[in-house]
Amino acid sequence: EDEDLVITPTGAKGREQPVEGTLLGIKRTVEECRQLARLAAEQPPGSSSLALLDGTLILWGLEAYPEFVTGALLDKGFLSCLEDVRKLNHDKKVALGSYISFPRSTDVVNVLRVAICPHEPADCDRYCPPDKAKDCDAVAGVRDRELFLNLLSQGERSALFISPSKIVREHYGVNHVYFFYLRVDDEIARVEIPRWVAEDEGLLNLAHALVLDQCRRGQGYPVALSEAHEQAVVTAANKEYFWQLVESLCLEEKMPTLTSAKRLFII
């Protein structure tokens, strides 16, 4: 509908934000979460379940938009849906999380960089000239997944970590994003959860167990998410052609063509 294509602030006629580009992707995530909350509400009393999203719980990119856009899509949209799921836990157990296959994040490695730094406090601008080698270069280029691939056994999860994201700190509250890494076969996945799941051992263990079960059923990728991908408009042939183009470009640039379990399943 037309009202879904623009976001207009209350009482400010003539000022509107078209829903396109980055915002269109965020809008889709909000609607997916809203539908997920509805499905979770339909679970019978006394049941245990996991509401699982594909990708991150952090709505990156909203900081570049006016506050009324953040309010509409995040505060009144995405976070409201997370709250709806949280409130279901009075007569049933519903954990909530998101699954990131082949994560590129370096949050934990960045902590190691600070720990390695001999200066107190760590201050690159003050102590480390651009043309001088730094102690923290020992972990330069390392991603979290590479670190935990050497630390975790099959099915194990890491300790919990807290997202340092500015938008999370300022808006998420009880839904502040925590995350852990999970070893699934030869891949490390990142699982993000809200604070209310992280602080409830029962819900945390439920999220861990059900994500792992989903991956085992789905050849290394959560079967519920892979089935959702099958409903996408883009055909398998188009997906395969896209990945062939990506791999061709990587080969031309002499870059490695590592593949995630997610890609193997959805093409």
Automatic annotation (TrEMBL):
Residues 1-234 form the NurA domain. This is NurA domain-containing protein. Pfam families: NurA (PF09376).
